[in-house]
Structure formats: C-alpha cells, structure tokens
Amino acid sequence: MINISEYKQGLYKSAGGLIRVFLKEREGNIEDIIFTGDFFIFPEDSLDIMARSLKDVALDENKILDTIKKVYLKENIDSPGTTPEDFASAIMAAAE
Asked: Smallest Cα–Cα separation from 49: which of 63, 64, 68, 30?
C-alpha cells in the first residue's frame, strides 16, 4: 500500500495535457515516482517503464531528461504533444 503523504506532487501543463507527478525522494535521488494526467502515451506501459528507469536517478534535470530520452528511444514511445522535456519539468516541479 502506498502512503501518498510521503510523496511530493508536481504539475506541469504540456501541449498534450496535464502531467501530474508523485515523487518520493531519498538522499537527493528518486526513490519512487508515479505519473498520472490527461495526456496520451503509447505503448500503454510506457509510464511504468519510465518510472522504473528513473528509480535511483539523481534529482538533476539533465540526468532525468537523459534517462527519459533513452527510454523514449528504447521503447519507441509516442506521446502526442508531450515531450521528454515536459516529463522532466513535471518531475522538477515535484522536487521543489
């Protein structure tokens, strides 16, 4: 069971929709992350794959963006109107 009170929340509005991030950090790294929102992303399990890839990544926008871009390429992700930069911005909004 997830205790959402342990998570910080960040919101970011991309051209493709609102991205909501729930972020749990530990010692400057991402311990856990959950993505929700009203954007489209394919394949359907892209958000889970992205979340797993971000685990233990430093809360540094460049490192986060690099990780997300690699996942987009590897998984052939399509997210109309929403870019890896948008996800990185949402994560950084939660980290503040």
From this structure: 68
Q: Would you place residue 5 in the very low, low, confident or very high pLDDT band (cuts 50, 70, 90)?
A: confident
| pTM for the model | 0.94
Q: Strand pairing partners for 22?
A: 9, 34
Confirm if 35 and 19 have CB atoms less than 8 A apart: yes
Residue 52 identity (one-letter amino acid): R
Domains of the chain, earliest start first: 4-95 (3.30.390.50)
Structure tokens at 34: 């959950």
- Establish whether the linkage from the previous residue to 43 is cis, with ω within 30° of 0: yes
How is residue 18 written in tokens?
A: 């609102």
DSSP type of residue 37: E
